[in-house]
Amino acid sequence: MMLSEPFTKASSILNTLASNGYEGYFVGGCVRDFLLKKDIHDIDIATSATPSEVITLFPKVIPVGMEHGTVIVRQGGESYEVTTYRLDGEYTDYRRPNEVRFVTNLAEDLRRRDFTMNALAMDSNGRITDLFHGKEDLEKKLIRTVGNAEERFQEDALRILRAVRFSSQLGCTIQADTFQAMYVIRSQIQHLAVERITAELTKLFQGYHVAKAIQYIIDLRLDEQLPIFEAGNSDIFKEIKKNIIPLQSFSEVIAVFHQLEPTIKIHDWIRKYKCSNHIKNDALKLINAFQFYRSHGLDNWLLYILPKKLWAGWIRLVFVMDHTTIQHEQLEEIDAILPIKERADLDVNGNDLIDWFPQRSKGKWIKQILEEIEYLVVTMQLANEKKIIKEWVLCNQQEPN
Ligand code: ATP
Ligand code: MG
Q1: Tell me: the pLDDT tens digits for 207-240?
Q2: In this structure, which ligand is nearest to the CA of 31?
Q3: Which atom of ligand 1 is nearest to the CA of 42?
Q4: How many helices (H) and strands (E) does the chain have?
Q5: If you classify domain 141-246 with CATH, what class do you get?
Protein backbone atom coordinates (compact mmCIF):
# COMPACT_ATOMS: atom_id res chain seq x y z
CA MET A 1 0.00 0.00 0.00
CA MET A 2 1.22 3.52 -0.77
CA LEU A 3 2.34 5.29 2.36
CA SER A 4 1.02 8.74 3.13
CA GLU A 5 3.07 11.78 4.12
CA PRO A 6 3.56 11.30 7.86
CA PHE A 7 4.72 7.72 7.23
CA THR A 8 7.09 8.51 4.38
CA LYS A 9 8.70 11.05 6.67
CA ALA A 10 8.95 8.48 9.49
CA SER A 11 10.29 5.70 7.21
CA SER A 12 13.84 6.93 7.63
CA ILE A 13 13.64 5.77 11.23
CA LEU A 14 12.69 2.26 10.14
CA ASN A 15 15.48 2.39 7.54
CA THR A 16 18.10 3.42 10.09
CA LEU A 17 16.98 0.56 12.32
CA ALA A 18 17.13 -1.89 9.37
CA SER A 19 20.57 -0.83 8.19
CA ASN A 20 21.83 -1.51 11.69
CA GLY A 21 20.34 -4.97 11.73
CA TYR A 22 17.16 -4.28 13.73
CA GLU A 23 13.53 -4.74 12.87
CA GLY A 24 11.19 -1.79 13.05
CA TYR A 25 7.49 -1.39 12.32
CA PHE A 26 4.82 1.20 12.57
CA VAL A 27 2.32 -0.14 15.10
CA GLY A 28 -0.90 0.53 16.93
CA GLY A 29 -3.26 3.44 16.42
CA CYS A 30 -1.35 4.98 13.52
CA VAL A 31 -1.73 1.86 11.36
CA ARG A 32 -5.40 1.59 12.29
CA ASP A 33 -6.01 5.23 11.43
CA PHE A 34 -4.01 4.91 8.21
CA LEU A 35 -6.27 2.06 7.05
CA LEU A 36 -9.31 4.12 8.05
CA LYS A 37 -7.87 7.07 6.09
CA LYS A 38 -8.05 9.25 9.17
CA ASP A 39 -5.58 11.96 10.10
CA ILE A 40 -2.55 10.54 11.83
CA HIS A 41 -1.69 12.38 15.04
CA ASP A 42 1.23 10.36 16.26
CA ILE A 43 3.32 7.56 14.87
CA ASP A 44 4.46 4.77 17.15
CA ILE A 45 7.25 2.42 16.20
CA ALA A 46 8.03 -1.03 17.60
CA THR A 47 11.54 -2.39 17.25
CA SER A 48 13.75 -5.34 18.12
CA ALA A 49 16.42 -2.89 19.30
CA THR A 50 16.65 -2.25 23.04
CA PRO A 51 16.26 1.33 24.30
CA SER A 52 20.00 1.71 24.86
CA GLU A 53 20.63 0.52 21.30
CA VAL A 54 18.07 2.97 19.93
CA ILE A 55 19.82 5.79 21.76
CA THR A 56 23.07 5.08 19.97
CA LEU A 57 21.42 5.10 16.52
CA PHE A 58 19.78 8.53 16.49
CA PRO A 59 21.19 11.98 17.26
CA LYS A 60 18.20 13.25 19.26
CA VAL A 61 16.61 10.82 21.67
CA ILE A 62 14.62 11.60 24.79
CA PRO A 63 14.57 8.70 27.27
CA VAL A 64 10.97 9.06 28.46
CA GLY A 65 10.23 5.56 29.67
CA MET A 66 13.31 3.41 29.41
CA GLU A 67 12.00 0.91 31.94
CA HIS A 68 8.97 0.33 29.68
CA GLY A 69 11.22 0.17 26.65
CA THR A 70 10.14 3.53 25.25
CA VAL A 71 12.24 6.40 24.00
CA ILE A 72 11.25 9.37 21.87
CA VAL A 73 13.23 9.92 18.71
CA ARG A 74 13.17 13.51 17.44
CA GLN A 75 13.61 13.89 13.73
CA GLY A 76 12.57 16.47 11.15
CA GLY A 77 10.65 18.43 13.77
CA GLU A 78 8.56 15.38 14.72
CA SER A 79 8.57 13.08 17.73
CA TYR A 80 8.30 9.33 17.40
CA GLU A 81 7.75 6.91 20.24
CA VAL A 82 10.05 4.00 19.64
CA THR A 83 9.30 1.03 21.88
CA THR A 84 11.20 -2.23 22.16
CA TYR A 85 9.18 -5.36 21.49
CA ARG A 86 7.88 -6.31 24.84
CA LEU A 87 5.58 -8.49 26.82
CA ASP A 88 3.70 -7.08 29.71
CA GLY A 89 4.41 -9.02 32.87
CA GLU A 90 1.91 -10.15 35.42
CA TYR A 91 -0.84 -7.82 36.31
CA THR A 92 -1.45 -7.65 39.99
CA ASP A 93 -3.11 -4.31 40.57
CA TYR A 94 -5.55 -4.26 37.66
CA ARG A 95 -3.74 -1.25 36.32
CA ARG A 96 -0.25 -1.48 35.01
CA PRO A 97 2.01 -4.33 34.23
CA ASN A 98 4.40 -4.53 37.16
CA GLU A 99 7.16 -5.93 35.05
CA VAL A 100 8.07 -5.61 31.43
CA ARG A 101 10.00 -8.24 29.55
CA PHE A 102 11.59 -7.47 26.23
CA VAL A 103 11.02 -10.07 23.55
CA THR A 104 12.62 -10.66 20.22
CA ASN A 105 9.71 -10.96 17.91
CA LEU A 106 6.97 -8.78 16.64
CA ALA A 107 4.25 -11.41 17.10
CA GLU A 108 4.63 -11.42 20.86
CA ASP A 109 4.56 -7.67 20.96
CA LEU A 110 1.36 -7.58 18.95
CA ARG A 111 -0.30 -10.20 21.12
CA ARG A 112 -0.14 -8.01 24.24
CA ARG A 113 -2.08 -5.22 22.51
CA ASP A 114 -5.69 -4.64 23.44
CA PHE A 115 -7.85 -4.90 20.33
CA THR A 116 -7.36 -6.58 16.98
CA MET A 117 -7.57 -3.24 15.18
CA ASN A 118 -4.78 -1.93 17.41
CA ALA A 119 -2.58 -4.98 16.89
CA LEU A 120 -1.57 -4.21 13.31
CA ALA A 121 1.99 -3.49 12.21
CA MET A 122 3.21 -1.94 8.96
CA ASP A 123 6.69 -1.87 7.44
CA SER A 124 8.33 0.91 5.47
CA ASN A 125 6.84 -0.43 2.23
CA GLY A 126 3.29 -0.30 3.55
CA ARG A 127 3.07 -4.07 4.05
CA ILE A 128 0.76 -4.95 6.90
CA THR A 129 1.31 -7.67 9.51
CA ASP A 130 -2.10 -8.75 10.71
CA LEU A 131 -2.03 -11.80 12.99
CA PHE A 132 -5.48 -11.43 14.53
CA HIS A 133 -7.77 -10.46 11.64
CA GLY A 134 -7.56 -6.83 12.64
CA LYS A 135 -8.15 -5.59 9.09
CA GLU A 136 -11.29 -7.64 8.78
CA ASP A 137 -12.58 -6.35 12.13
CA LEU A 138 -11.72 -2.84 11.07
CA GLU A 139 -13.71 -3.26 7.87
CA LYS A 140 -16.65 -4.58 9.87
CA LYS A 141 -16.05 -1.87 12.46
CA LEU A 142 -15.81 -4.42 15.24
CA ILE A 143 -13.93 -3.99 18.48
CA ARG A 144 -12.61 -7.34 19.58
CA THR A 145 -9.90 -8.17 22.09
CA VAL A 146 -6.74 -9.97 21.07
CA GLY A 147 -7.14 -13.33 22.80
CA ASN A 148 -9.50 -14.21 25.62
CA ALA A 149 -11.60 -11.18 26.40
CA GLU A 150 -12.11 -11.81 30.12
CA GLU A 151 -8.41 -12.36 30.64
CA ARG A 152 -7.50 -9.25 28.73
CA PHE A 153 -9.90 -7.03 30.70
CA GLN A 154 -8.83 -8.67 33.95
CA GLU A 155 -5.22 -7.78 33.11
CA ASP A 156 -6.10 -4.14 32.55
CA ALA A 157 -9.59 -2.79 33.16
CA LEU A 158 -8.74 0.44 31.37
CA ARG A 159 -9.30 -1.54 28.19
CA ILE A 160 -13.02 -1.59 29.03
CA LEU A 161 -13.14 2.18 28.82
CA ARG A 162 -10.84 2.18 25.80
CA ALA A 163 -13.28 -0.09 23.96
CA VAL A 164 -16.13 2.32 24.60
CA ARG A 165 -13.92 5.26 23.70
CA PHE A 166 -13.01 3.68 20.35
CA SER A 167 -16.69 3.04 19.66
CA SER A 168 -17.20 6.78 20.12
CA GLN A 169 -14.26 7.82 17.97
CA LEU A 170 -14.71 5.28 15.19
CA GLY A 171 -18.38 4.34 15.37
CA CYS A 172 -17.43 0.73 16.05
CA THR A 173 -19.62 -1.98 17.48
CA ILE A 174 -18.27 -4.07 20.33
CA GLN A 175 -18.08 -7.74 19.38
CA ALA A 176 -20.37 -10.00 21.44
CA ASP A 177 -17.77 -11.92 23.50
CA THR A 178 -15.83 -8.75 24.13
CA PHE A 179 -19.03 -7.00 25.22
CA GLN A 180 -19.94 -9.86 27.54
CA ALA A 181 -16.49 -9.84 29.16
CA MET A 182 -16.66 -6.08 29.67
CA TYR A 183 -19.87 -6.59 31.59
CA VAL A 184 -18.36 -9.34 33.72
CA ILE A 185 -15.15 -7.50 34.57
CA ARG A 186 -16.63 -4.00 34.86
CA SER A 187 -16.22 -3.61 38.63
CA GLN A 188 -12.42 -3.58 38.18
CA ILE A 189 -12.78 -0.08 36.74
CA GLN A 190 -12.97 1.14 40.32
CA HIS A 191 -9.34 0.19 40.88
CA LEU A 192 -8.00 2.31 38.04
CA ALA A 193 -6.14 5.52 38.67
CA VAL A 194 -8.80 8.16 38.23
CA GLU A 195 -6.62 10.29 35.95
CA ARG A 196 -6.72 7.49 33.41
CA ILE A 197 -10.51 7.31 33.65
CA THR A 198 -10.77 11.06 33.16
CA ALA A 199 -8.50 10.89 30.12
CA GLU A 200 -10.63 8.16 28.52
CA LEU A 201 -13.90 9.92 29.28
CA THR A 202 -12.53 13.12 27.79
CA LYS A 203 -11.78 11.32 24.52
CA LEU A 204 -15.07 9.44 24.68
CA PHE A 205 -17.08 12.66 24.85
CA GLN A 206 -15.08 14.16 21.99
CA GLY A 207 -15.89 11.28 19.66
CA TYR A 208 -18.25 11.78 16.76
CA HIS A 209 -20.29 8.73 17.82
CA VAL A 210 -20.59 9.80 21.45
CA ALA A 211 -24.28 8.83 21.62
CA LYS A 212 -23.41 5.27 20.69
CA ALA A 213 -20.72 5.16 23.39
CA ILE A 214 -23.13 6.49 26.00
CA GLN A 215 -25.57 3.75 25.08
CA TYR A 216 -22.78 1.25 25.75
CA ILE A 217 -22.12 2.85 29.12
CA ILE A 218 -25.78 2.42 29.99
CA ASP A 219 -26.10 -1.12 28.60
CA LEU A 220 -22.91 -2.33 30.29
CA ARG A 221 -23.73 -0.46 33.49
CA LEU A 222 -20.29 1.08 33.44
CA ASP A 223 -21.61 4.30 34.96
CA GLU A 224 -22.06 2.49 38.28
CA GLN A 225 -18.31 2.01 38.37
CA LEU A 226 -17.39 5.63 37.72
CA PRO A 227 -16.71 8.28 40.37
CA ILE A 228 -19.89 10.19 41.33
CA PHE A 229 -22.22 7.94 39.32
CA GLU A 230 -21.42 5.01 41.60
CA ALA A 231 -23.53 6.75 44.23
CA GLY A 232 -26.65 6.10 42.17
CA ASN A 233 -26.83 8.98 39.76
CA SER A 234 -27.03 6.67 36.79
CA ASP A 235 -30.07 8.22 35.21
CA ILE A 236 -27.97 11.17 34.19
CA PHE A 237 -26.49 9.14 31.35
CA LYS A 238 -29.95 8.41 29.97
CA GLU A 239 -30.74 12.11 30.20
CA ILE A 240 -27.53 13.22 28.60
CA LYS A 241 -27.90 10.85 25.69
CA LYS A 242 -30.99 12.61 24.39
CA ASN A 243 -29.29 15.64 22.87
CA ILE A 244 -25.64 14.81 23.14
CA ILE A 245 -23.14 16.08 20.58
CA PRO A 246 -19.34 15.76 20.74
CA LEU A 247 -17.94 17.91 23.56
CA GLN A 248 -14.45 19.20 23.17
CA SER A 249 -13.25 19.46 26.77
CA PHE A 250 -13.91 17.88 30.13
CA SER A 251 -15.07 21.32 31.33
CA GLU A 252 -18.00 21.04 28.97
CA VAL A 253 -18.72 17.52 30.17
CA ILE A 254 -18.77 18.69 33.78
CA ALA A 255 -20.96 21.67 32.91
CA VAL A 256 -23.51 19.42 31.22
CA PHE A 257 -23.57 16.92 34.08
CA HIS A 258 -23.82 19.67 36.67
CA GLN A 259 -26.67 21.32 34.84
CA LEU A 260 -28.52 18.01 34.70
CA GLU A 261 -27.86 17.27 38.37
CA PRO A 262 -27.25 20.56 40.18
CA THR A 263 -27.01 18.89 43.57
CA ILE A 264 -23.55 17.67 42.59
CA LYS A 265 -21.25 20.65 42.82
CA ILE A 266 -18.64 21.53 40.22
CA HIS A 267 -16.16 21.30 43.04
CA ASP A 268 -17.07 17.64 43.60
CA TRP A 269 -16.61 16.78 39.93
CA ILE A 270 -13.21 18.42 39.96
CA ARG A 271 -12.10 16.65 43.12
CA LYS A 272 -13.41 13.20 42.24
CA TYR A 273 -12.03 13.30 38.70
CA LYS A 274 -8.80 15.06 39.77
CA CYS A 275 -9.12 17.81 37.19
CA SER A 276 -6.78 20.76 36.79
CA ASN A 277 -7.63 24.31 37.87
CA HIS A 278 -7.86 25.17 34.23
CA ILE A 279 -10.69 22.64 33.72
CA LYS A 280 -12.37 23.87 36.91
CA ASN A 281 -12.27 27.54 35.97
CA ASP A 282 -13.64 26.89 32.50
CA ALA A 283 -16.41 24.67 33.88
CA LEU A 284 -17.42 27.41 36.33
CA LYS A 285 -17.45 30.07 33.62
CA LEU A 286 -19.50 27.89 31.30
CA ILE A 287 -22.05 27.18 34.01
CA ASN A 288 -22.29 30.80 35.15
CA ALA A 289 -22.81 31.98 31.61
CA PHE A 290 -25.35 29.25 30.95
CA GLN A 291 -27.39 30.02 34.04
CA PHE A 292 -27.29 33.72 33.28
CA TYR A 293 -28.49 32.95 29.76
CA ARG A 294 -31.38 30.87 31.10
CA SER A 295 -32.65 33.83 33.10
CA HIS A 296 -31.70 36.75 30.82
CA GLY A 297 -31.20 35.37 27.32
CA LEU A 298 -28.45 36.70 25.08
CA ASP A 299 -27.31 40.01 26.42
CA ASN A 300 -24.29 42.16 27.11
CA TRP A 301 -23.53 40.75 30.52
CA LEU A 302 -23.45 37.22 29.14
CA LEU A 303 -20.79 38.16 26.62
CA TYR A 304 -18.92 40.09 29.27
CA ILE A 305 -18.57 37.05 31.56
CA LEU A 306 -17.94 34.52 28.80
CA PRO A 307 -14.40 34.57 27.40
CA LYS A 308 -14.20 34.16 23.65
CA LYS A 309 -12.25 30.92 23.91
CA LEU A 310 -15.31 29.35 25.59
CA TRP A 311 -17.88 30.48 23.05
CA ALA A 312 -17.87 27.27 21.04
CA GLY A 313 -18.13 25.13 24.17
CA TRP A 314 -20.89 27.30 25.55
CA ILE A 315 -22.84 27.03 22.29
CA ARG A 316 -22.55 23.24 22.57
CA LEU A 317 -23.72 23.38 26.18
CA VAL A 318 -26.81 25.36 25.17
CA PHE A 319 -27.50 22.88 22.39
CA VAL A 320 -27.22 19.84 24.65
CA MET A 321 -29.35 21.40 27.39
CA ASP A 322 -31.97 23.33 25.43
CA HIS A 323 -31.75 21.92 21.91
CA THR A 324 -31.27 25.51 20.73
CA THR A 325 -28.64 26.42 18.19
CA ILE A 326 -26.86 29.69 18.79
CA GLN A 327 -24.68 31.06 16.04
CA HIS A 328 -21.22 32.34 16.63
CA GLU A 329 -22.22 35.54 14.79
CA GLN A 330 -24.95 36.24 17.35
CA LEU A 331 -22.31 36.33 20.04
CA GLU A 332 -19.97 38.32 17.80
CA GLU A 333 -22.59 41.03 17.29
CA ILE A 334 -23.18 41.58 20.97
CA ASP A 335 -19.51 41.34 21.82
CA ALA A 336 -18.75 44.09 19.31
CA ILE A 337 -20.93 46.62 21.12
CA LEU A 338 -19.73 45.97 24.68
CA PRO A 339 -18.72 49.31 26.20
CA ILE A 340 -15.96 47.66 28.24
CA LYS A 341 -14.18 44.31 28.11
CA GLU A 342 -12.98 44.12 31.68
CA ARG A 343 -13.18 45.84 35.07
CA ALA A 344 -9.97 47.77 34.38
CA ASP A 345 -11.70 49.51 31.46
CA LEU A 346 -14.08 51.32 33.84
CA ASP A 347 -13.51 55.06 33.96
CA VAL A 348 -13.48 54.88 37.77
CA ASN A 349 -11.68 52.74 40.31
CA GLY A 350 -11.58 52.14 44.04
CA ASN A 351 -9.52 55.26 44.68
CA ASP A 352 -12.19 57.45 43.08
CA LEU A 353 -14.80 56.01 45.42
CA ILE A 354 -12.59 56.62 48.43
CA ASP A 355 -12.16 60.25 47.26
CA TRP A 356 -15.92 60.70 46.88
CA PHE A 357 -16.68 59.31 50.33
CA PRO A 358 -13.82 60.66 52.45
CA GLN A 359 -15.73 60.01 55.65
CA ARG A 360 -16.05 56.25 55.01
CA SER A 361 -13.41 53.79 56.07
CA LYS A 362 -12.19 51.27 53.50
CA GLY A 363 -14.24 48.12 53.31
CA LYS A 364 -16.15 45.80 51.06
CA TRP A 365 -18.56 48.58 50.09
CA ILE A 366 -15.96 49.66 47.53
CA LYS A 367 -16.02 46.32 45.77
CA GLN A 368 -19.83 46.20 45.94
CA ILE A 369 -20.30 49.60 44.36
CA LEU A 370 -17.72 48.85 41.68
CA GLU A 371 -19.58 45.65 40.81
CA GLU A 372 -22.82 47.57 40.52
CA ILE A 373 -21.20 50.18 38.30
CA GLU A 374 -19.62 47.47 36.21
CA TYR A 375 -22.97 45.79 35.61
CA LEU A 376 -24.71 49.06 34.74
CA VAL A 377 -21.96 50.13 32.36
CA VAL A 378 -21.78 46.76 30.62
CA THR A 379 -25.55 46.68 30.20
CA MET A 380 -25.47 50.29 28.99
CA GLN A 381 -27.60 51.71 31.76
CA LEU A 382 -24.77 54.00 32.75
CA ALA A 383 -22.20 55.69 30.54
CA ASN A 384 -18.57 54.86 31.18
CA GLU A 385 -17.63 58.43 32.06
CA LYS A 386 -16.24 59.40 35.40
CA LYS A 387 -18.45 62.49 35.77
CA ILE A 388 -21.65 60.60 35.06
CA ILE A 389 -20.68 57.67 37.22
CA LYS A 390 -19.88 60.02 40.08
CA GLU A 391 -23.32 61.63 39.86
CA TRP A 392 -24.96 58.23 39.89
CA VAL A 393 -22.92 57.04 42.84
CA LEU A 394 -23.61 60.14 44.91
CA CYS A 395 -27.35 59.98 44.19
CA ASN A 396 -27.72 56.27 44.79
CA GLN A 397 -25.42 55.40 47.59
CA GLN A 398 -26.69 55.62 51.15
CA GLU A 399 -24.42 55.75 54.10
CA PRO A 400 -23.12 52.23 54.72
CA ASN A 401 -24.80 50.46 57.61
P1 ATP B 1 -5.08 7.21 20.08
O2 ATP B 1 -3.62 7.54 20.18
O3 ATP B 1 -5.72 7.59 18.81
O4 ATP B 1 -5.83 7.64 21.27
P5 ATP B 1 -4.09 4.53 20.13
O6 ATP B 1 -4.69 3.23 19.70
O7 ATP B 1 -2.86 4.98 19.41
O8 ATP B 1 -5.23 5.61 20.05
P9 ATP B 1 -2.54 4.73 22.50
O10 ATP B 1 -2.97 4.87 23.91
O11 ATP B 1 -1.73 5.79 21.85
O12 ATP B 1 -3.84 4.43 21.65
O13 ATP B 1 -1.74 3.36 22.44
C14 ATP B 1 -0.98 2.93 21.30
C15 ATP B 1 -1.12 1.43 21.14
O16 ATP B 1 -0.66 0.75 22.31
C17 ATP B 1 -2.55 0.94 20.96
O18 ATP B 1 -2.96 1.01 19.61
C19 ATP B 1 -2.46 -0.48 21.46
O20 ATP B 1 -1.88 -1.33 20.48
C21 ATP B 1 -1.48 -0.36 22.60
N22 ATP B 1 -2.16 -0.11 23.88
C23 ATP B 1 -2.40 1.09 24.46
N24 ATP B 1 -3.02 0.97 25.64
C25 ATP B 1 -3.15 -0.35 25.83
C26 ATP B 1 -3.70 -1.14 26.89
N27 ATP B 1 -4.24 -0.57 27.96
N28 ATP B 1 -3.64 -2.48 26.75
C29 ATP B 1 -3.08 -3.06 25.66
N30 ATP B 1 -2.57 -2.39 24.64
C31 ATP B 1 -2.59 -1.05 24.72
MG1 MG C 1 -1.67 6.74 19.91
Answers
A1: 999 999 999 999 999 999 999 998 777 688 999 9
A2: 1
A3: 2
A4: 20, 11
A5: mainly alpha
